[in-house]
Amino acid sequence: QAQLVESGGGWVQAGGSLRLSCAASGLTFVNYRMGWFRQAPGKEREFVAAISRSVINTYYADSVKGRFTISRDNAKNTVNLQMNSLKPEDTAVYYCAATFNGRTSVRDDYDYWGQGTQVTVSS
What is the pLDDT of residues 75-111, one digit of tens each? Predict the structure, then answer.
């Protein structure tokens, strides 16, 4: 059974930074595209960022482009999300996800999900 475990969530003031990490196990990490999604109370889970197996190609939602950076370390089986210039609207539970052959920004195409980590940004 594949397992994804997020860490690094917490509380920050608007304009601050936070770095999320996701540790993967039980799957051949290099064979999966990795993504980050987030879900705020009362809202649907939405795409945030994704990264290809080659590490070179990255994808971002318009709402976070220029502020967030996704990265991965295939030797360590980890994917990270560096979040800068955080805004109150970034407050949500952030989820790490893996897809073997799905579309990078399509929630239902992802095969495995972590349990999420809370990010709270105060005004």
Answer: 999 999 999 999 999 999 999 999 999 999 999 999 9
Question: d(Cα 70, Cα 79) in Å, to the nearest integer?
Answer: 7
Conformation bin of residue 75: beta by default, left when phi > 0, alpha when psi is -120 to 50: alpha
Element (H, E) at 121: strand 117-122
Q: What is the 3-state secondary structure (H, E, C) of 29-85?
A: HHHCEEEEEEECCCCCCEEEEEECCCCCCEEECCCCCCCEEEEEECCCCEEEEEECC
Q: For the chain, what percent of residues have pLDDT higher than 70?
A: 99
pLDDT higher than threshold 90 for residue 55: no
Question: Distance between CA 123 and CA 116 in Å, rounded?
Answer: 23
Nearest to 7 by CA among 118, 98, 83, 99: 118
How big is the chain by its Cα radius of gyration, in Å?
Answer: 13
